[in-house]
Amino acid sequence: KGEGKFIVGGNWKCNGTTESIAQLISDLNAGTITKDLEVVCAPPFVYLAQTQASLGPPFEIAAQNVWTGAGGAYTGEISADMIKDLGINWTITGHSERRALCGESNEIVAEKTAYALSLGLKVIVCIGESLEERQNGSTLAVCCAQLKAVAEVVSDWSNIVIAYEPIWAIGTGVVATPEQAQETHAGIRKWLAAAVSPEVASKMRIQYGGSVNAGNCDVLAQQDDIDGFLVGGASLQGDSFITICNSAV
Ligand code: PEP
């Protein structure tokens, strides 16, 4: 395991209404978290203020994405400065949906990550391979290339959490087996030790993401190199998300 607390993220993606988010927040606030862990929920930007006003501890709040740098003439974008200005401490970068649907390259994700870190934000950097890449044996090569782009522009990794999310497991109901997840997490940690430093490798928290639910979280959480989860679909159900939080090791 990496150092620090088990960390679970809830990625609400582009879901919700004022009413459904109020209900989700109320369910989360009413839940009983029995473990000492970090929990970070990422609502759509337009519901950040609502979430901030009503979601209580231990839940923290994250943005789902940020622009590559400071604000300016970037219509429709949100800068890390604005997230910081709201008093939010976290952002996700490099989610596979942004890489695939919005054309974010490894370099763009790295630039976003570096800029957010430079402002003092903590960043959950998502990496992961496609089904084709897994089948042709390039899983680690793909994940490490994604991290190498980050290593080229970031020197202090202490505010980074890595989320390993195989694309074939995201939103599909096909969860990685504990062995598959463990093997890849261990490979990522080994790469960090060689390419960044043994210290960063041993401290890094690596989340697994991809069809995590209340039924499969316990066995995954037991794996040596799994330090938390990034949860999509199941994070929209308060009771499931609380169960996943309580799988913390
Ligand atoms: C995600 O999008 O980060 C994710 C893991 O989604 P899901 O849990 O729905 O597979």
Automatic annotation (TrEMBL):
Keywords: Isomerase. One of its GO terms (molecular function) is triose-phosphate isomerase activity. The keyword Isomerase applies. It comes from the Eukaryota. One of its GO terms (cellular component) is cytosol. Pathway: Carbohydrate biosynthesis. One of its GO terms (biological process) is gluconeogenesis. Belongs to the triosephosphate isomerase family. Homodimer. This is Triosephosphate isomerase. It comes from Cymbomonas tetramitiformis. The chain holds residues 66 to 314 of 314 of the full protein.
